[in-house]
Design brief:
It contains nine helices and no strands. By secondary structure, the chain is an all-alpha fold.
Amino acid sequence: MKKQHTDANLGRQMANSKGNSHASRQSAAQNLFERGYKQWRKKNLRSALRFFLSAAQGGDVGAQVNAGYFYDRGIGVRRNRSAALYWYKRAYRRRDAGAANNIATIWRDEKKLKLALSWFKKAVRLGDDGANLGIAKHYLRNEHNPREATRYLLRVCQSNRVAEVEVEEAKRLLEEVRTQQGTLTGQSKRAKHGVGRVRRS
C-alpha cells in the first residue's frame, strides 16, 4: 500500500531553533506544503505538484513524499520512476518510513523482490508497522514460507499503528495460512495411517 502525507501536520519535524534562517525556511516550506495539499484536495493536481516540489526543495519531508507519490502514480504529471525514487529517497534520508515503504512497493512491482524486501524492512525499522504486511506477502508468495509470513502477519495484527485495512488483510492471510496448514496436516496424517490410499492388487 502506497503512503502519502495528506495532513499538513503529518510527517512534520519541528524546526530546531538554532537559527532564524533555518526556522524561516522550515516555515516557508510548511506553508508551501499546506498550499499544495489544498490544491490537491481541490483536484488542481499540477498546481499541487508545483507547491509540493517547492516545499520539497525547501526540505519539507511530507512534500518530498508527496512529490515522489505524484511522480510514482502519475498524478498531475507523467509517471516517472526515477523522479519518484529521487524524492522518496530524500525523504527516507530524513527518516520517513512511508518513503521507504513506497520505494519497496516500486521494487516489488518491478519484480526486484530482494530489493523490495530490504526496503520493507527499512520501513519497519523506521516505525511503519504496516510494512510488515509487505514482508509477510513476500514470504508467502515468493519464498513459500508460511511460518515466516505468520510472524509478520501477527505483528500487523498486534500493532496499534496500522490502518484497519492492513489489519483486515493480515487477518485474512493468517486464516488462509491456517487453512492451508490444516489441510496439509490432515493430508500428512492420512498418508501416515494409510487413509485414502488405493492399493494395487
